[in-house]
């Protein structure tokens, strides 16, 4: 590495999952533009692993075309599920093979972080609910990774601590139980007469919309409960600040990843088949080079 390369800052690669909802994809791209404007000396690009354009490989190509050889990749995800643990590292390994001489430092997911918990609390307050008389139902995406699901419960507990809510319960919109109706049933059984349904998502999209539809359907048959709907986190200033914090951690090698309950490392009941499983990247429909390594597997999961 040349002395000039050592002094140049790492480029920032923001990695999103992707969505079929145009609003959610544009919110991601808007955040990328905002991040680029905050620190003009750092090359910034963003890409998706599936569903939305641009694909991750195009974002990496944009950065390398601008002369970047050291890239810090930050997963724009709230929990470390299969995408953050396997799909993205495998995709970065593929990009490293495609572009010899390019190195990647990989950051950790975003939550639960106090700054984002403050935003969630504001979302609850925005629907006019008095905390002491309100139970919050925090609804996560849901995963087949038990460690990822436990992170949503952790966020719910941290949201409850010291904020004065009557309670904070947890549900999931896909892949994991309890689902939204079951979560609302639990809140009601515990005595809640006002419930704020709070989607634990960064941006609008198909799944947050599903959360609202399911909650509205439940409320229609439970008239004795006041059900209110809060908004997602959104591309707020706190989110941009947190991305830069994760970027700094990656660049400085200060990655405090929690692997104590990772299904890829620890034989958890019902998930023993995941231990040591090799990971391979998603194949984005706009990634026209993917056939060249279609049969290559990514490295085994190592965080």
Summed up:
The chain is built from nine helices and eight strands.
Question: How would you characterize the overall build of this protein?
Answer:
With 303 residues, the protein is α/β, with parallel strands linked by helices. The chain folds into 2 domains: 3-110 and 237-260 and 270-293, Rossmann fold, CATH 3.40.50.1400; 114-229, Rossmann fold, CATH 3.40.50.1400. Helix content is 39%, strand content 14%. It contains 9 helices and 8 strands. The chain has helices spanning 3-7, 22-38, 56-65, 82-98, 114-125, 146-160, 180-189, 206-220, 237-252, and strands spanning 11-16, 44-48, 70-75, 103-106, 135-140, 167-172, 194-199, 226-229. A 4-stranded parallel beta sheet has the order 2-1-3-4, sandwiched between helices. The chain has a 4-stranded parallel beta sheet with strand order 6-5-7-8, with helices on both faces. Helix 2 (22-38) links the parallel strand 1 and strand 2. The protein starts with a helix and ends in a 51-residue tail after the last helix.
SS strand fraction: 5-15%
Helix content: 25-40%
Number of spatially distinct domains: 2
CATH architecture of the largest domain: 3-Layer(aba) Sandwich
| Overall geometry | globular
* Overall mean pLDDT: 88
Quote the CATH topology of the largest domain: Rossmann fold
- The biggest beta sheet, please? 4 strands, parallel
Parts with pLDDT < 50 across at least 5 consecutive residues? 291-303
- Summarize the helix and strand pattern as letters: HEHEHEHEHEHEHEHEH
What is the CATH class of the largest domain? Alpha Beta
Distance between the termini: 25 Å
* Helix/strand structural class: alpha/beta
What is the radius of gyration?
20 Å
Give the number of helices.
Answer: 9
